[in-house]
Amino acid sequence: MEDLKGIWAVGGGKGGVGKSFIASAIGTALARRGARVLLVDADLGGATLHHFLGIKKTAASLSDFFDRGRPLFELITGTPVPGLSLIRGHNATLGAENINYAQKNKFLRHLAKLAREYLVIVDLGAGSSHNIIDTLISADLMAAVIVPEIIAVENMYTFLKNALFRRLAAGLNQIGRQHVLIDTWKNRHGYGIKGFKGLIASLSGRDDEIGARVREEIENFRIHLIVNQARNRQEATVGNAVKSVCRKYFGIDCRYSGYVEHDEFIGRCVNRREIYMESYPASRCAREVERLTDNLLTGRQVSIIS
Amino acid sequence: MDRERLKPYFDVLEIEPAASLTEVRNAYMLLKEVYSDPESIVTGPLAGEMGEESRRDILERLEEAYHVLLAAFEQSREEPRRRIEKVMADIETFDGPALKRIRERLGVDLNDMALATRIQVQHLINIEEENFSALPVKVYTRGFVANYARHLHLDEKRVVSDYMTRFEAATENNG
Ligand SMILES: Nc1ncnc2c1ncn2[C@@H]1O[C@H](COP(=O)(O)OP(=O)(O)OP(=O)(O)O)[C@@H](O)[C@H]1O
Ligand SMILES: [Mg+2]
Predict the structure, then answer these.
(1) Superfamily holding B91-174
(2) Which chain B residue has the Cα nearest residue A246?
(3) What pTM value is reported for the model?
(4) Do A153 and B54 make contact, defined as CB atoms within 8 angstroms?
(5) May I ask the CATH class of domain B7-73?
């Protein structure tokens, strides 16, 4: 466990689905198993990750990085969980979420450096903006959290499409053909392209080099799906269904890594400044988080629940 | 069943090649439901993008995978039968050694059998070795043998009748 290093990014598109709770719970589970974990709250709009760790305030936060140019490693603080550290998020001042290109790249560089010493778990926050997507695709493990509800699924597809688009752009850029992607998408109506799948089909048919590259990027695009706040087993099967659509329709390597049930004690722990995984380690949710963590480590998946 | 060769079909149903028949059925039913409904929670958000043809294409692949796998499971159910055909032909009476030969031929482990039948391993051994004096009284032994036969899908009546004849002869002689 001590050699577990790298970056895991937790996003999903929709707000309030439980990205921060899941990130904190996985982080706690891994730290308890002996990994050296650093949680980074990259939700530049509304940093709340510290609440799930029973922490009110920290001396330093990402504001010090973005506004005052302090290096990331100086902002690391401890948490009540041994082996688990935190970089608290930016407390949104108006417009603060709009960091520029240079700042984003510097942030990703610093993260990569920290990932040599820690397993860095990044809470991406809601949405599918450029900064979020670029942080996601720079990670070693990408995770998307949804709840069993149509809006979350819809947002997750958007999140995915944006990430895929960025990956395709980067892949085609390597062979100097990025303009083909941009041009095709801009003129999609002229080309008669319907939706993202149509774009992929059109690109794949362009020429062998582009086709091969596009297929490679898509097949190698692995995302771990997590269903949160399931109220029964039936709701957990939404994960099997979403995974299926991602594999069969988008053609990506989507894994259904785990589900976590709804438990009102999660919210109560926040109010009492307790850490759920520490206060209720034997609860169903805690055991589901443990199983999810196992699956993320091994690549195993939730089988079809009947 | 050659599960490696069948992997593409297991993949279509999004299950491991080691999946059981029940898992195959469940996967097929769930996925069929997902793609049959253009307004489901997972297909709805793609409306206008995921065309009718896409869905129909996926449904056809599901159908094909399910049928290929069903056939493979059906065939594999018959496989053990064929494997013991030759042994069975030589058997005149179902005595202990005959039962043992059949069990070994089917590759059934004694410990697994003990778990499934809830008969102690030692009793299963006693049945096969015909340690009649170590076996319990008639009614119990009859139950054990019936259970043994059922577990191997043998003709329960015939096995019990053959075996108990020998059991009774031996135990009567001993007093
Ligand atoms: N499994 C769960 N059962 C019950 N409540 C939960 C569960 N997971 C999270 N919650 C609660 O739901 C709310 C949203 O959770 P969280 O803050 O983790 O979501 P988020 O996706 O990070 O939101 P945001 O998009 O605002 O960052 C919180 O009040 C949290 O306590
Ligand atoms: Mg959050």
Answers:
(1) lambda repressor-like DNA-binding domains (1.10.260.40)
(2) B42
(3) 0.82
(4) no
(5) mainly alpha
